[in-house]
Amino acid sequence: MTDAVPRFPTSLGASSPDTITLLGQDLATDLMGKVSFGELALWLVTQRRPAAAEVRVFEAVLVALADHGFTPTAIAARLTYLSAPDSLQGALAAGLLGGGSRFLGVTEDAGRFLAAALAGQPVPSDDAGYDALALAAVSRARAAGQFVPGLGHPVHKVTDPRTPALIQIATEEGLRGPHLRLFEAIGRVHPQVLGRTLPLNGAGTCGAALADLGLPPDLLRGFALLARCAGLLGQLAEEQRRPVGMDIYLTVEHNAEYLSP
Q1: Largest pairwise CA distance in the chain
Q2: Domain contains 142
Q3: Average pLDDT of span 209-218
Q4: Which of 114, 116, 136, 233 is CA-nearest to residue 184?
């Protein structure tokens, strides 16, 4: 008796000697030059062709998260490239590996927080209902000694300029859903619990917008990394043209202070 040949099903891509099929489409004739990269990325994940409104919100999120200057992830990429200029992929990977709870990962954390607050609850019909839901969620987080993801920013102390822009785009496209509305409510009510006012940061807003597109929280960090990959590639291209990695390294090296153990 012979063993059955294992099967490996996929609905994504497949190749034959003459064609490449992706998502049930002919890659060369149906997709190339006709589908934007953002649309394709969303299509690959959901396995349904997204509407134009969804693509606009999704691509706005990608743009919002692509690059913010000399962030730790960008510095990590540049210094890795300084150490191993023969490994561009290593430098890109170094930057992406830094996507965590303080940078980039907030997109996923905010989406999870909002989804948990909405789970099992009737969708509020007005701002007062969202405010009550937000107040309960922030209060629970405070009682547990946890941060509310998406609140505060190390640079933008009053308003993160990405936040109102993304909310406006989602509103224009009819995609300002319960996650975004709850996140906005958190912005209104959190001073009652925390005793201070913090801005809704762009990464958290992106998480809310992605959740309103129906994307699962477990994948949201992946979209942040997808966006940041483009930014890191730009950082590395600039590092090639106008390097600063050596200066960063030497500044730390020359100003290191040795302390006896």
Answers
A1: 73
A2: yes
A3: 96
A4: 114
Tell me the C-alpha distance between 245 and 83, whole Å.
9
CB 63 within 8 A of CB 45: no
CATH number of the domain that residue 207 is part of? 1.10.230.10
Q: Find the length of the chain.
A: 261
pTM above 0.85, yes or no: yes
Q: Which residues contact 152 (CB under 8 A, 6 or more apart)?
A: 198, 199, 201
Q: Which amino acid is at 254?
A: H
Distances (CA, A) of 244 to 92, 93, 212, 250: 16, 19, 40, 10
* pLDDT value at residue 224: 94
pLDDT tens per residue, range 75-124: 999 999 999 999 999 999 999 998 877 777 889 999 999 999 999 989 99
**Residue 137 structure tokens:** 């969620």
User: Which residue range is the domain that position 158 belongs to?
Assistant: 106-217
Number of domains in the chain: 1
- CA atoms of 102 and 140, how far apart (whole Å): 21
- Paired with 26 in beta bridges are 21
pLDDT in tens, 38-47: 999 999 999 9
Angle at 180 between CA 174 and CA 185, to 5 degrees: 125
